Amino acid sequence: MPRAQAKEPWEIEYMKKAQEITDRTFDDLLNVIHPGMTEKELCAELIYRLYKYGSEGPSFDPITVSGPNTSLPHGVPSERVLEYGDFVTMDFGCLYHGYCSDMTRTIALGYVSEKMDKVYHTVLEAQLAGIAATKAGVTGKAMDAAARKVIDDAGFVGCFGHSYGHSLGLLIHEGPYANTRNDKPMPAGAVVSAEPGIYIPDEFGVRIEDVTVLTETGCEILTKSPKKFDYFIKIPLKSRAIIVKIKKLFYLLVYSTRVWRNIFMATITAGDFRNGKTFEMDGKIMQVVEFQHVKPGKGAAFVRTKMKNVVTGAVTETSFNPTAKFEEAFIERKGL
User: Fold this and answer.
1) pLDDT tens per residue across span 215-228
2) For the segment 273-311, what is each residue's pLDDT rounded down to a tens digit?
3) Pick the residue with more confidence: 236 or 207?
4) Among 192, 99, 95, which Cα is nearest to 147's?
5) HSE-up of 306 (CA within 13 Å, CB side)?
């Protein structure tokens, strides 16, 4: 058997270390990424952290794409500015003692549509099905088929245009492959990616990738970064509940620190404003950033207010009559 197909234990240890650096980088990026930065800026932040945490550099040119660019499986970082409501796909890895890591995560900025939510969870289900089928002795074709069936059955036939996985080691792409053509049994000790995806042209795409080590009884997953996103802002607004699913960043929270944000309404006046006070205005949830009660020598008193839209982050300034009434939003945070 060619040595590249089955890794020695010491080789796998180097690959685990490479993956630890990659996971740590992803965790950092969740606190760095924000609407308004470009795909290239995100890529620069990513590469910097790969070096910072001890790698020898990227194992391939990182993919950091957003919005409609996520529909390109091998998109190149551009000057496109990240926006609220975007999917952002990051596919990257690093080198440690010459050995490669590789992972992909797709996150959302602020919120997702129902279609985006369906696609994301279909890809996740497909990946989990592929991983469940992964073990030594199973053909690469069977691993690919397990994931591909989930995607096809969900109505996305033709939207998964690449193979389920590839081996890696000293090279980022090595054999054996988990694709529709490989009808040979996969060997124990092979290190193989698990990366199904769905790509809808000119709309968006989702890919989730882990690296696995095949064993006689199944596989070990080297990638530890979270991938199960299930977060909500629940806003009873004028007697109508609005539930918006979002994924860590501002109101995007990783599953290990999930929070329910329950908002209940009560009437207040502008004269009650204080820093941090949250209220509804014109169908938007606003938060007071600064305020000043002004009593001019002539004319009526007013409250000069700087406020922030809690969903978009946009800051505006205006003045209110102290008696102007609003629906207050009490925000209760509970860890799940």
Assistant:
1) 999 999 999 999 87
2) 888 788 888 878 888 888 888 888 777 888 899 998 877
3) 207
4) 192
5) 6
CA angle 314, 319, 321 (to 5 degrees): 135
pLDDT at 314: 81
Short-list 230, 206, 67, CA closest to 150:
206
Q: Position of tokens 């802002």?
A: 233
Q: Which residue type sits at 84?
A: Y
* Beta strands across the sheet bearing 87-92: 63-66, 87-92, 103-108
Q: Is 74 exposed, middle or buried (0-12, 13-18, 19+ CB in 10 A)?
A: exposed
Do 195 and 156 form a contact (C-beta atoms < 8 A)?
no
118 neighbors 108 (Cβ within 8 angstroms): no
Instruction: Tell which residue, 254, 205, 296, has the closest CA to residue 28.
Output: 254
Q: Please give the helix or strand (H or E) that residue 199 lies within, else none.
A: strand 197-200
- % of the chain exceeding 70 in pLDDT: 85
- What the block records as the tokens of 102 is 């590789």
Q: Is 3 helix (H, G, I), strand (E, B) or coil?
A: helix
pLDDT at 54: 97
* Token duo for residue 103: 């992972």
Q: What mean pLDDT is reported for the chain?
A: 85
